[in-house]
Amino acid sequence: MKKYIYAFMLFIASVIVNAQEKRITIGLGTGLSFAQSDFKEWSKGGNCFYINVMYNLNEKISAGLEGNLTRFSPRDRGTDEDKTKIDGVLLKGQYSFRIKNIKPYSAIMAGLYNNTFAYPTGYDGDAWAESIYSSSFGGGIMVGFNYKKINVDISYYNLGKLNEKLVHWDDVEYVKANISFIQFRVGLNFSFFTKKN
């Protein structure tokens, strides 16, 4: 048992030493979002904004947090004001390598989302979008590359199944959908060196 404890302590020490010699990277950017699965039946494409802070543990592995704000327009009913809003705070782990001046990478993400879904509905010829509020746990996968300060990536996110009930006077409508989407993003990275002790 002691050898596992010593090995773990050695690992922590090596991470701390590497972190003191490596960089912190802040990334921000924007892109396009495309609803998938059941979700695309009532949501069109949208846009997104992201900001992340990554802690480089060594030359290949980074970990950090990402904030992702996504907006989707309704497909058939409602107005442009009735947008689906999906806002997430995600833990992100990233593995990268270098090919000359290009740095390809892959990443996995998981975290919490605060959502407002604009679900199309309407009666007697009128049409509008009903708001459905929910919180969910979700995650995603990503591949991309960095060239100098420029970041380009494509990612897939899945928030699981939406299962809600809408009540309109005597009428009840059940909303069931798998919430997933793809994002194409472009952004900038800014790197900062930490101070050595």
The Rg value, from CA coordinates, equals 21 Å
- Helical residue percent? 10-25%
User: How do the helices and strands follow one another from N- to C-terminus?
Assistant: HEEEEEEEE
Poorly predicted regions are: 1-6, 8-21
Indicate the CATH architecture: Beta Barrel
Contiguous helical run count: 1
Mind telling me the CATH class? Mainly Beta
Tell me the number of strands: 8
Average pLDDT number:
81
Kindly report how far apart the N and C termini lie: 32 Å
Strand order, sheet with most strands: 1-2-3-4-5-6-7-8
Q: Which descriptor suits the 3D outline? A: elongated
Question: Gist?
Answer:
With 197 residues, the protein is mostly beta strands.
Describe the overall structure:
It is elongated, with a radius of gyration of 21 Å. A hairpin with a 6-residue loop joins strand 5 (102-121) and strand 6. It has one helix at residues 2-21, and strands at 23-36, 43-56, 61-74, 84-96, 102-121, 128-147, 150-168, 171-193. With 197 residues, it is mainly beta. The chain starts with a helix and ends with a strand.
